[in-house]
Each structure stands twice: as C-alpha cells, then as structure tokens.
UniProtKB/TrEMBL annotation:
One of its GO terms (biological process) is cell division. This is Tyrosine recombinase XerC. Residues 111-294 form the Tyr recombinase domain. Site-specific tyrosine recombinase, which acts by catalyzing the cutting and rejoining of the recombining DNA molecules. The XerC-XerD complex is essential to convert dimers of the bacterial chromosome into monomers to permit their segregation at cell division. It also contributes to the segregational stability of plasmids. Pfam families: Phage_int_SAM_1, Phage_integrase. The active site is at R151, K175, H246, R249, H272, Y281.
Length: 300
C-alpha cells in the first residue's frame, strides 16, 4: 500500500493504543495481527491503498473469513480491530470515511464467566508458603486479585505508592487511561504489608524499581508471570479447577452481587464503562441459584 505508508500508519496506531487507550501488550499484538492479515488480503486483490478500501472489499474479506471457517468470535475481533484502525485514521484526517462502520458484527452467544465458590477461593489462598519471600508475594497477589476484582494488567501496573493502607484502597490505571480506586479488605492488606516488609525488600536487593510485584531477581512481574503463578497453585489445588487471573475478577463480582451489592457500585469497582458489561454477573448468580435449587429441593 504504497501511498499510505502502512508501516508508519500501523506504528502510529499502536502508539495511540498504548498511550491513549492504555491497551495491554497482548491487545496491541492482536490488533496488529488483524490489520496485517487484512492488508495482505487487500494486496492479493490489487488494492494498494487504505483509502481505496470500500464496503464491497470489507464484505469480500468477511466472506472469505466465513468460508475459511473462522469462529464468530474471531471474526468479531478482527472486525473490531479494523473498525478501530480506520476510525483512528479518519480521526487523524488521514482518510475521509470508515468503510467498516457499515459492517455488522456477528452475533455472539452470551458466555457466562467462570467463577469460584468461596471454599475453592479459600483453598487457593492458603496454598502459598508464606515463610518464603516468593510465597508472601504470591499470597499478596491472590488476595489482592480476589479483594479488588482488578485486571491482571492493572495488578502488574501497581507501584509501591499505589496502595493506601489507611484508606484500604489501591489506585489502579485501567482501560482507556482511566484511574480508579479499588477496595482492599483486611486480609488483602495484611498480605500486602507482610509482602512489603518481608518479601519485596528481600527480592529487590539487586534490582531497584518501583513496581509493587517483582520476580526473584527484583524485576517487575509481567501479565504472563502472574498467569504462571496462578496456574502453579491451581495445579496444586485441583486439576478440575479452570482458573485464570480474570477468574478472580469474575469471582469478586459474583460474590459481591450474591451478597447484596448493587450493580452500580460493582460497575465502578470493576471499571466498566457500561453497566451492561456488569449485568452479566446477575445471570451468573441466577445460574448458581438454579443449580443450588436443583441440588437441594426434593421436587426439583
């Protein structure tokens, strides 16, 4: 795509995602893959400039994805990436129109988020060996994920100044470059203080930085590292548990709503832009209610 300098455009778009949207590295990578795949498709069909792409080309691309048996969720993601990319170019006055605005997103079946029961949470939280620095760190990670419902990217973005023990809160930097305070309960604060006093200080002897959670060399933990930590304890607890860092977020929201928290408060704590994203947890609690009823009622 000679006239539009695709590499430069893609670089500018990635910078926009990272700086203005505060997108995670994985999100940026996925956007890039989707855009490059579409660019290659258009080159094969003789379209060499982004400005030359029309709705007809968009329909042709979506048709090919369907014919290649891509899942609806994958097609929806690709469409979202390309729609955002073109919206960015229009906003920056590089293009006059966005041909993806007319394309409808495939309807997706509502997938209820997985969550843990209280006893499962307790068994996981008890696993780290808190006589060791790494165990103190891991206990603090698990406690804070469950106590606050923060995203794993928000957890790894915490610094040593993010937590206010007296207020019982942490300041997180969320999606869309939005800051918010999340609550931390007594257990999470206790685990945090134990880690700060007798974990982080020992891990950071060689490598000085302000990241809250660090590895054995004192370097900031990545999202992938946190997933490995959680998977390690899940394997110890049970092969039947399907847990990711996001499961703690789902569990946090589900347990709050089950115990009477209002949707607006949960929405604010999760950092959801729309309450419709939070409403899915009411479906989760209804499913749980139905399960309990079927197991407990003699005539269910």
């Amino acid at each position: 795509m000679e006239g539009m300098q695709p590499d430069t455009l893609l670089l500018l778009f990635k910078q926009y995602l990272q700086i203005e949207k505060n997108a995670s590295p994985l999100t940026v990578t996925n956007y890039e893959k989707d855009i490059l795949a579409f660019t290659a498709f258009m080159k094969q069909h003789g379209v060499m400039e982004y400005a030359a792409v029309s709705y007809v080309h968009v329909r042709s691309y979506l048709t090919e994805l369907h014919e290649r048996d891509y899942a609806r969720r994958s097609i929806a993601r690709k469409l979202s990436s390309l729609r955002s990319f073109y919206r960015f170019m229009v906003r920056e006055e590089m293009l006059e129109h966005n041909p993806f605005t007319m394309a409808s997103t495939p309807k997706l079946a509502k997938k209820l988020p997985g969550f843990l029961f209280p006893k499962e949470v307790e068994s996981l939280l008890a696993l780290p060996d808190t006589t060791r620095p790494l165990g103190r760190r891991d206990r603090a990670i698990l406690e804070m994920l469950y106590a606050s419902g923060m995203r794993v990217s928000e957890l790894t973005g915490l610094t040593i100044r993010s937590v206010d023990v007296s207020a019982g809160t942490a300041l997180v930097f969320g999606k869309g470059a939005k800051e918010r305070y999340v609550p931390l309960g007594e257990h999470a604060l206790r685990a945090y203080e134990h880690y700060i006093r007798e974990g982080r200080s020992l891990l950071c002897k060689q490598h000085k930085n302000d990241a809250l959670f660090v590895n054995v060399r004192g370097e900031p933990l990545t999202d992938r590292s946190v997933r490995r930590i959680i998977n390690k304890y899940v394997e110890q607890a049970s092969e039947l548990l399907k847990v990711s860092p996001h499961t703690f977020r789902h569990t946090f929201a589900t347990h709050l709503i089950e115990n009477g928290a209002d949707l607006r408060s949960v929405q604010e704590m999760l950092g959801h832009a729309s309450i419709s994203s939070t409403q899915i947890y009411t479906h989760v609690t209804r499913e749980r209610m139905r399960l309990v009823y079927n197991q407990a009622h003699p005539r269910a």
